[in-house]
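Now for a concrete sample entry.
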Amino acid sequence: MKRIMILIVLVAVAGVAGIVRSSVGSVAELRQLASHKNTEAVRQEIRQTYELAPGARVEISGLNGAVKIETSDTKTAEIYIERTASTQEGMDRRKVTIEADANSLRIRGEKSDEAGFFSRFFGSSANERTTLKLPRQIALYAKGVNGAFTTGDINGVVEVTGVNGRVQVGSAVGSATFKGINGGVVVGLKKIAQEGVTLSGINGNIELQLGADVNADFDARGLNGRVISDLPNVSIDKEKRGSYWARIGTGGVGITAKGINGNIRFTRAAGETATGQD
C-alpha cells in the first residue's frame, strides 16, 4: 500500500513539473507586460510628401488615434504621423504602411502577427496622431479610425465609416456616406451629387450645414431623437415615432438617415445666405 501511495505522489510531482516548465514562457511574458508600465515612452515620426493628380483617391484605415486633415488648392500631399508607445515592443506590435502614386494614396495601420499570446490580447499598442495636408480635389475614404476625425473642404466623394470619435467635415461637394460613427457628426454640404447623402448607425447628434442653393428630400427611419431646422426653407413632417420626412428648398436628391441615436439639425453653412434672403 505504501508503495502505491509513493508512486501516486511521484506521478503527481512529475505532472506539476511539466506544467511549470510549459508555463515559464507565459509567466515571463506576463512579467514583461507588467514591467512595461514603468518604462519611458517610445516615439516615432513619419514624414512623407507625394504629388497627387486631381480627383485622386485617398484611403485612410486602421489608425489608432485622431486624424486631422487640412485641404487647399494644391497638388501636394504632406503626411505627418507621430507614433507613441510605452515600449519598443508595443511600437512593433502595430505598423503603419503608406502606398502612393499619382492617382491614389493609402495610409493603413494594422496589427503585427509576431506578438506572443498574452501580448496580443493584453499588451498595449502604439497610438498614432495623424496630420495630413491634402489637395481639396480628392475622393476621401476613411475606415476604422479610433479617435476624432476632422477634415477641411473636399471637392469629391466623402465616405467615413467605423470611427470611434467625433467626425467633422468642413464641406463636401458630391456624394457623402457616414456609417458606424460613435460620436457626433458635423458636415457641411455645399452641393449634393445625384447619389445623395447617407447617414446610418450613428451614436451622436448630427448637424448638417447646408449651402444656400441645396435642394433635397430628407428621409429618416429608426431615429432616437428629433429633426430640427434653423432654416426657413425646410419643412419637416413627423410621420410616426422615429420617422421623419423633410423637404429642403424645392426638394431633389436624397438625404437618408437610419439608425441614429441623437438629434439631426439643419443649419446654414458659415458665410452663406440663401438665395433671395438678406
